[in-house]
## 1
Amino acid sequence: MAGSGTAHLRQPSESLLRVENLVVDFPAGRGKKVSAVSNVSFDIAPGETLGLVGESGCGKSTTGKAIMQLPRPTRGEVSLDGTDLCSLRGEQLRNTRPKLQMIFQDPISSLNPRRTVMQIVEEPLNIWKIGTPEERRLKVSEVLSSVGIDPEAAAERKPHEFSGGQCQRISIARAVITEPSVIICDEPVSALDVSVQAQILNLLEDMKARYGLTLVFIAHDLAVVKNISDRVAVMYLGKMCEIGSPDSLYAAPAHPYTRALLAAIPLPDPNASLDTEHHLEGDLPSPISPPSGCRFRTRCPLAQEICARVEPQMQHVTGDQFVACHFPLQAVSETPVAVQA
Amino acid sequence: MQTNRDTSITHLDSSSLPTIEAIEAPSSHTVKGNRLGTAAWVAIAWIAFLALLAILAPVLPIPDPNQSFVAIARKGPTAGHWFGGDAIGRDLLSRIIWGTRSSFIVGFGAVAFGLILGGMLGLITGFFRGRVDGLITPLMNVLLAIPQFVLALSLVTVLASGAGVNSTRRLAVVVLGLGIVSIPLLGRITRANTLAWSEREFVLAAKAMGAKNGRIMVREVLPNVMPAMLSISLLGVGIAIVAEGGLSLFGVGVQLPMPSWGNIIAEGRGQMRNSPHIVIFTSIILFLTVMALNFLGDAVNRRFGVRESVL
Amino acid sequence: MSIGNQIDGLPTPSGTPGAPKLLEVRDIVTRFTTDRGSLTAVNGVSLSLERGQTLGVVGESGSGKSVLSRSIMGLLPRANTERSGQVIFEGKEISGLNDTEYRELWGDEMAMIFQDPMTALNPVMKVGLQITESLRFHLNMSKADAKDTAIALLKAVKIPEPEKRFSSYPHEMSGGMRQRVVIAVALACGPKLLFADEPTTALDVTVQAQILDLLAEQQRERFMGIILVTHDLGVVAGRADEIAVMYAGQVVEQAPTALLFSEMKMPYTEALMSAIPKLTDASHTRLAAIGGRPPDLVNPPKGCAFSPRCPYVQPRCHEEAPALTPSPTAPEHLFACFYPIGSPETEEIRLRIAAQRLMATAPQFVTPAQGPPPIGEVPAPPSTADQPEGM
């Protein structure tokens, strides 16, 4: 990983959202910068769910926010339906907002505690002056019932009267009310209990089918990501390691980091032997001075001298699986895969 | 990118409702509403009582505050004059009631002035941060570094001392002086709270929805910052009333003959040995009022501070 | 320590005459006074633990699992709290101790690891001092000895450059390193009983594995009893000898780990298990979510606390609360259910639900399982799908 390259991108015409060479730097004081996201590219076809996984500090949430242009990325291109959002200014960018929505991790923090559920869910319609007050109320009721909240009982209540799972449902209602084409879900179930998490994951699948949504699903839990995604991208320290369909990626990870992540998951099965052999040692290096070459090399069991010198590029493995590694665990396809436009 | 701002609303077929795990009824937790607590209600009653007296002062059956009765000069409470008289025989009760007018105008006026300006600056700097913040906040810090009382004293001295200044002008200048002093304090509190609330994801969510900054500030941030601002302001009112007394000691408070609690105490200082009742009665009223304001400030914070979880 | 042979690492068979268990908890009830009334956070929990053993306490938020461990340790605030029941630590009743007597126990005999390593450490104190503090208090060590011991501890929890880290502040370390320090602080005085309250919830999955390995290793070396409190069945599955599942303040099922996973009896345990997305399932497998939400502990439902959400509920469940009783086939397996999994009543309903689910969700189920759903007029995208398999 720790790799760049765009070999894994499909034709621009096939993708609804396309992120190319995205770079997000944050100033870290004294002239230094944190490179939170470095040359990340991916694309999402309409109706697809892309799972972004990685540990904290890998830049997955920053990527999600950069797609939203909140804040704007340092460099790179984010095209939604063929329009490069990074090149839009002010009002033009604001006009694209209803098409691109976001759901956040903390269900409590993402709802204004002083406003009622009605006001919260109606707000996007008010901002865009969509419909008459009567129509708006109807729409809110309809969306609320579609996320499993009783509009009659809930409309005049405030968020603190609801559980975390219910708050997350309200957030989802607010996100879908403008009928967006893409929703960025930033760890939407990480703060929830297992039983509620399952409800929300099922709900997201339902909403996706009902409103024709395309999702970017950011999470650290590989099992959750596998459940909801059509494609999974693994990130490490601001770079992309591996991307592919979850079934092939999980069955045969090509990147040593993906393998380590999978090995670290505690399985709810006492008979499953703990794969301590592939457990990672050490900590994430500092993103202020990331390792040269492949950023994973400092913790990689397979690292060689070349990994410090040359940054690996995305290579095709099999099917739609691509990996950025000099020594992938799966054979790399020999066939030229220049599907690049 | 097609920015399709459809002004009609497409209603989805309600028969296609997904199979969700039953519509959940919202929590049965009933919140005990509108409870400020007894202490706060007593405080409100006290302040309302004083405010009422101050407003009704002209029609109350009390003597003119500037009329001297030789018989009660420096005397304690009598049947006709419940609080006794001051050094030159003016009815103390009447002076305190009339003084409530100027003290409340100073207290509430100065803080309202500071709250509007300081609150606005705090909201703007806290919300936008960056360059705006870098410009205004250091200025506020400089203002804060100057001893507050000295600053107020100098402001009032420069703007309204000397012989030709009438009482009304002086009152306005005292309000202005104390108001300016309270700007950086209130601004700072507002800014700190705004900074914290602007970090919240619902602000990001509002931006993601396409809400403009002004709307976000007014609708999302301000209502959350308000309780802290109000709570501090109530404390501030008490402080401003006391500070006016301090200015009076230096002869630049509310100008005699117009009474204020501050100048009654300042005047009565000389009579402490023989007729302490002047200072004592006024101070008790002052003390009770400041305490009531503090209680109220706390109660406001508790009552309107946000409940964010069920427990 | 009264029993010499335990220190060799031999597990004590439970019920050895004359050898008191490390910890025995009987009928703990903890209530909090809230605005809305009395909240029963822990409702009659009994447990026991031997040295060298790990008891996993599993439950969702609000199940009372964290309050339970604090109740046992005596860490709850006294105000607005009402606690009853017995806590017997090495044969001594400790629930009636006062703060001073507790302080003798804390750190020395029993210690706790908290969820958030950042708040568990004092941010303005060097980590070394936070370790030596308890060494000097409990073991009366000299300053130099305490420092040596602290550095040895930092080494034991695998902190690189322990001498240098001794004088670091918590904020200079990563989350995983901080949790190692928290563990070092907890282990400092060689406690016999360690409470680990969601020790890895705030950590990344790779770091979580490191920390759990470390705890297991330290447990073997020090022969500690561990109570591992977590919401994650995955965490306890591979690490605990015995598991207690909590719901609404009560233990609803308790069994040795292997038995619990192979023969779940309580519908809640089963529901909790099936709600977890499995790595082995194909993507877009619909999850078996538990409907509804945990009960309000101020006004708990009548009868079994899980009855409002239980798929197998029977009229009796709404009327009577089942007690935690041993399974007739395996006495070490306790559960609180009138109609456990495997009973005829439950099996009948299970079949009915399975049939219904198949009927109701079949159309919805199929669509997302095969690539992107048919929204938009877009042809199925994966252009790389026809590539020959490159393995």
## 2
Amino acid sequence: MSYIFGAMIALSFLYAVISGNLSQLSSGIPEAATSAVELLISISGMLCMWSGFMRIAKDCGLIDKLARLFAPILKRLYPDVAPESDAFRYISMNISANLLGLGNAATPLGLSAMRELRRINDSDTASDSMVTFVVMNTASIQLIPTTVAALRKSYGSQQPFDILLCVWMTSVTALAVGLISSRIITIFSGRRAWKR
Amino acid sequence: MEAIIPVIVASLCVYGLIKRVNIFESFVEGVKEGFETVRFIAPTMIALLVAVGTLRASGALDFIAELITPLADKIGFPPELVPMGLLRPVSGSGATAILTGIYEDCGPDSFVGRCASVVAGSTETTFYAVTMYYGAAGIKKIRHTLVSALLADLTAIAVSVVIVGLIFGP
């Protein structure tokens, strides 16, 4: 991270010197800091509001409801995890919490799921289910992309949520590509989950 | 589409009341968590927004975009999205900083603005998630996880351009 940060600053300085933009740069740096804080304040309202409503969803037991709803799909994705095991419960609850945008709730559930998966398959090499699970967590599957909407609104978007359909279609496609590619690689490398 | 947010919010509250959940208390608890999130992301966000702001003010960002444009044009890909795609899997706050830069230059309701929003909304900070989850389970050999995860990210970027083009027109 330090390298990225340092490179960005150094590159800017070098370019400004070469192109004679130094005066714009010297006023631009403090302006960037000011607008960063303004931005954070302006998005925090919407973020807090959504965390509030999603917390209501959680307290209504919607995470468990969603988890039950997804069980049939997840059974196919995790053939070596028994549906009544703790690992399966953590996996489905993690996915449901992610879907509701409850990052704070999803992460600890996901970490528990990984530990349970490790117990099923005790080695320092990732099992097929672990790969599937981590790939699912690196693709954002979120019903309401609140942060993006808050950012769009603070930059004067007319309809901050008009991208909703695009976001859903894109995340589903990306997730499918991630999972299918993972399955293909597994088959080609000759290790099928159910044979182990 | 414009009814979706009020409908979600109202039905959540009604459902909570039927289920006899103390919805006010829950909401307040959630807001607390939301504030925590903002507090948690603020320092990195400010640092990276300063770095991106510096790049923009010096004119270096425009210069990089000019270098990429002919290449991106050949495959019909908006060049403004390239830095976003490169940074997204590595740093969430960094990608947000780029995203706000795009909003400032092109507007959030422009084609590029919408594409960048879709990319930001449909991807995660891949390297962070991989490190955290495997770290917690003590896994050293992650096999093809990163390949598949990055393939998904790449798909998201390519597909966002296609889908936004289909729904909103280029």
## 3
Amino acid sequence: MLDKELRSMIGDVKDGRMDRRAFIQRLAAVGLTAPMANQILAIGGVAMAQSPSPYPPTKRGGGGPLKLLWWQGPTLLNPHFATGTKDQDGSRLFYEPLASWDVDGHLNPILAAEIPSIKNGGLAADGKSVTWKIKPGVKWHDGKPLTADDLVFTWAYASDPATAAVSISTYADMSVEKVDDLTIRLVFNKPTPFWANAFVGAYGCILPKHLFADYKGSKSREAPTNLAPVGTGPYKFVEFKPGDLIRGELNPEYHMPNRPHFDTIEMKGGGDAVSAARAVIQTGEFDFAWNMQVEDEVLLRLEKGGKGKTTYAVGGDIEFIAINFTDPNTEVDGERSSIKTKHPILSDLAVRQALALLVDRESVKKAIYGRAGRTTSNYLNGPEDFVSKNTKWEFSVEKAIALLEKAGWKAGADGIREKDGKKLKFVYQTSINGPRQKTQAIVKQACQKAGIDVELKSVVASVFFSSDVANPDTYSKFYTDIEEFQIPMTQPDPALHMKRYISSQVASKDNKWQGQNFPRWVNKDYDAAIEAAETEIDPVKRAALYIKCNDMLWQDVVFIPVMHRLTVDACATALQPVVSGWANRTDNIQDWYRGA
Amino acid sequence: MSQYVLRRLLIAIPSLLGISAVLFFVLALAPGDPFSELATNPNVPPEVQAALRARFGLDDPIYLRYLHWLFAMAHGDWGFSFVSRMDVDRLILQRLPATLYVIGSAQVLALLIAIPVGVYAATKPYSLFDQIANTLAFIGFSLPTFFTGLLFILIFSVTLDWLPFVYTTDIKATGIHYVLEMIRQAIMPVAVLGLFQAASMTRFVRSAMLDVIRLDYVTTARAKGLGQAKVIVKHVMRNAMIPVVTLIALQMPAVFGGALVTEQIFRIPGIGSLLISSILSNDTPVVMAVTFVFACLVVLFNLIADVLYGWLDPRISLR
């Protein structure tokens, strides 16, 4: 039914009877993200709206220096080795992909002449190939022309396991062919509904073949250009001191008119978030600081000075409490939380539902995240207008108590509920991080009122998030009952975000706890839905499948979403940055300018 | 003399080996690994992580890794940073100038304050000057540098807006402006560190002077009719300086090692901040190199201090 309606709607947009905006809003109403809606249009044969942000400067340069402050400085400048976003941000100043994600989650052509669509013949109807046309006349910083060979090489470089590039999975399961000097074709092994992954965004940055050809595979780490990038970007590389400073200067031959606005760029690293906020908002020593993980209260106080402001970008990052479906206190075959066990208490749905009722998301938002968070009932959160209408949340101690009473959990002599001799006691772990410890305290308080005893545990972040097989305190070993952390959504498509929780991904000793399904939740329907979605080329059916997956996670209370987190940056009052919640901070650096 | 130095250097070898072994095994036992940031990234499959670990030899047994490291170090290869994917020695050399400049200036400032104040206070014990100097010194070393650092930033950067609080290594100006700007941005960190050092050193100089000033030979010197200045400088100070020299010599490695906290607060790209960020990102080769170099410097400057004793007091013979 929805399918049919959508097809007629796509037809309307094609013929101009309905505008794109209305279409996207309609889809948002049924729970589709704007990026998804755009890809649906693209596959349906409508060219993606290229919504360039207004860019008033009328000449290249003249904007003076742009001073960026990253409180964790970039440590290397090869986008395909970038271990963290800081490195991707730094590399992106010099290297460019075919397209970036703009503020609304649309594709914005950078090195591509146009965004592929069915109409312009770029997308194959079966979803098995994409043809990209490269903008003619683009030159590397050393003067050599950019050609299809560079793209084919980038694919070969990144997909070679010996190179040990972190972008390997972006370029796996496909091959890249040169059609002519300025055209390439991506051929996928299976129908790929989300085709805008390779050559887009941070991992999409294209490397110059003439400088990296000798350093493919096992010699990759010896490339001098790993530390001295030669790209096509708006700024040319001048100097790099790992962890401290990156300097660049205007590229006079940049391929976009009137860009870039700034004459020089520098990215300083080090220090902490609060003093970075101070240097931008209070003293104005810097123009832009990244990732203000600072309490909203502090930011509000700093902003009173008036030299700077905070800016927010909406993505899909979700902070949640995950439930352990296995027993963390029983050891089976040398591992705790083994999939062969069942959690003695949390396997009771009523207990999980009661827990969800006890997480006061509104208070967490008010007391901790402020403007940087949004309350949500969904695990999968799209841009602003994405709300799966099927789910809801509330905070009610009374309802939680009623639910527990009904399920047979009666208060014992010490006020803690018990059933069949099992006490309602949990260990709740998270990483050491101010906001997380406060959230723990808020949840613990509510649980106490409902007769649940919660023991709090905090683990140093470097241990909690490590893949150290010998350490019992990692998030993937999950040797506690519940745990809280954040999973960022790295691209405007739910495939990777949702695939984590299929049965075959259960973290266990056998896969050295590298399996991504850390709650160890097993659900055949979920597996089937994910498997179907992976190859479903019909965008409507595919989207419906992912919404169904989200709702399954909600119904079964696998996660208790705490906060849909926005990215927060500090920015000088006059600076006009273009930051997308779906990409790196610097993904649209060519469009930044300083207003009057 | 040269025989003594040679013997001391030879003795240093086993102790440095011991230090390096302890450092290496403790670091190897510490939790976390350099690729942990990749763990929560769904784009990076576990196989890539495993390949990276294998590439950097993280899966080898510990003793083998230690032997590899030792062998490389003996050849002058300081190792390869996991995180920056560049040679550790280049990384350290990049950071050294800022540390030498800031910490070195702070030490000089500390000496310039501590020696005159300490000496003068000792010549007039319990006078008003001595009391004030003592009180200030007490306050000085009671306040931790992270506190005074933030206080200075609040006063001089935020409120008065006189000085920058982010240290930049690429000052745009040239000539005299460059020099002035370099001095301007170093004022706060140098003052914070220098005053802290000066406080403890002043008390040290004062008590060392007081020990000597009451000795009979000083009274003899005065009885000979020598002037106050000559007595203090030539007779008292020279002897009182022996323990002070030890203290200074032992602080010299810190000039190279950087100041962890202060560098972090003022974003000085020195060895200290390199060490902190490397520890946080589990970049073991860098941590290892920095700490090991630090250990070498401590051993070296101890030797230098011992040699200096002989020059200050010829009665101490070095055999």
## 4
Amino acid sequence: MKKLTITALALASTMMTTPVLADGHGSKIVDEPLELTIHMHHKRYTSYDEDWPVEQTAREMTNIHLKNKTFGSNTPQSDEAINLLLASGQLPDIIGTSRIRDVVNQYGPQGAFTPLNDLIEEHAPHMKAYFDSHPDVKSAITSSDGNMYYIPYLPDGKYGRAYFIRYDWVEKLGLEIPNNVDELKTVLEAFRDGDPNGNGKKDEVPYFARQWEELIRLVTLWDGRSSGSDTYHDYYVTDGKLAHPYAGEGYREGIKNLAEWYAEGLIDAEIFTRGSSSREFLLSENMGGMTHDWFASTSGYNRLSADIEGFSFKAFAPPASISGKRIEEHRRIPFKPDGWAMGGTNEHPVETIKYFDFWFSPEGRDLVNFGVEGAQYTLVDGEPQFTQEFLDAGPVNSSLYQIGAQLHARGYFQDYEYEKQWSNEFALEGIALYDEGDYLIDQFLGVSLNADEQKVYDKYNAQLRTYMLERQQAWILGTGDVEADWADYQAQLENRGYSKVLEVMQAAYDRQYN
Amino acid sequence: MQKKLAWFLQHMRREWQIYVLLAPTIIWFILFLYKPMYGLQIAFKDYSIFRGIAGSPWVGFEHFQTLFESDTFVRALKNTVIISALSMMFGFPMPIILALMFNEILNQTYKKTAQTLVYLPHFISTVIIAGIVVTAFSPSAGIVNTIIGWFGIEPIYFLTKPEWFRPIFIGSGIWQEAGFSSIVFLAAIAGVNPSLYESAVVDGASRWQMMWKITLPSIMPTIIIMLIIRIGNILEIGFELVILLYQPATYQTADVINTFIYRQGLQGGQYDVAAAAGLFNAVVAFVLVMTANTISRRVSRTSLW
């Protein structure tokens, strides 16, 4: 009887693997199972788990068996963990972590990581196809010695943040959704004075933001810039020339006006200290009027219409700037500094690169984006569709982490379809609006500095930024006057090495992107 | 030589228990204080984690030069000294005053309750303390602005005003730690010989006189030793609270050496520069302790060594 059961099991398991083989894609990389070691660290999952269903399926499909060799699993800080790993001197075959870009660019040229260019060229058709069609991403992840040392997590979908406003308040006050900066000011003044929440108190907060940097973002309405990428205070690029947004004329004009808005009470008086809970608090207390925040999560607040009569907080097109330009400065970056790399002592580089490539193949992409077929999704007309049961089970993204899908410490290409299937209608409506207007602008994807350039950058950049932010807040809060201080400010930036930093970054940029 | 060895063996055989008791402390010192000193050399090297301490090239005093050429570092140094000096001036006497006050409470239940209440803030995590401070000083809902509002004063956005940072920081530090620090002084007071008080009572001394003439002089050695230790830590400011409370708008008065190291060194991965700043910190602290100890030995004959 026992023998029979085992036979039945064996039969069943061959039946399960058969379709994969029959597909003829030949996703098996090696005939005999091969073990590779991996360090995988992310704040949400601080070590690699062989039991993740996605990993089990991948193992079956590729015959590559990953073994957990993660350092620093007891800390949620991935940068600490990777430093511990590097200091130990024993790198595993694969290293996957958040913020791996700086690490590989710094230590790759010293031999800690295996260069990937030739391997991709020869053994990784799917990744090669991706990089051939995205030369800018390829340039961006290329290190100062001309090699690529990591495969990034590549988010899909362009949109990140958008302007949101209380449509019901605008309507109640007999106004129109603002089309330009002057109309915006009128609307915010009406929010302040017109008591749109109808409680008889002047407690409305016209513009608020979870991150105070989103206040600075408004300088785009005066043709200034606040950042060139999806991180705050970053350099930006126009016509191949790098500059810092906080040194430009538009910025000066923007700050001057924002300081007035702040003084007039159009901006949340506590914007610098209210912090991350401000959106939750001000919206549910029926006090907040407008913000600039993420599409998906901000649209979710429309659930408040159950408690607040008429509540409608939706995205509106970026108001035109003083020169008539409508731009949305924030967007999702096409690649993240997270992903995975190959250790410098890896003895199976060909198998490893083929394994990396597996996740870019159609089967691998479905697996990493949607989970296991039959469990989390089914194929509907050949396209993966989450099962209703899985969608109802709770927050989709955290359920996916738990089964080992959508892990950002892995190099893979996201499929926006995965997110679309659980985005709410207001978010999709807003994205359609932004798509129509084509408001996004090009981003600065970062530069890979060589050792000497890095030294210059390290020496000046931190204190340069400290100074910029100090002056910025002082101007907004009214303890300084941007018009009067401007010449001195420029001179101080120069003193603190602004053009030296710019020079090394420009050199790196020219090397990398031309 | 033979004789000495024999004496040593005999000594060890007789006193070994004491050495066993001493061992954990010595091992702790070697592992956590002496061994890491090897790593201090990265302050003089162009450090790469991957190459390791021994494999990184020497750069001499380059990192120290970088530090002192930076206006931000010099300002941070100045702020550190000012904040420390002020918090010593206002913060150091508080636990002593508290201990003396507790000592005067006769009702035991009341005394225990009061003590527990002032110890409590010590056990609250810094993040929560920062949250309490931010809320208390908020211009719209904070209790401080509500109270000054009763007197017709316009709300002040305290946490963005450079001139308010130090009072708020030092005040919240005192609120959190004064109670707990008073324990050591209470212990010292408990050790005062009761016969001194008895004879004072016989001589008709008032409680006030007993406090000034007996209690304070008796605990003076403890006070001085605590003061010397405190001086040694003058450059060590609890920087978590600074990071949680400061803003670019208040860097001017709030940025201290440790927050500077944090921004420059750890966020940017410049361990060598951070180590140089840390070493500088330690050298200054060493000089300060030596000075304080010498002065104290000359003046009051109390000293750490």
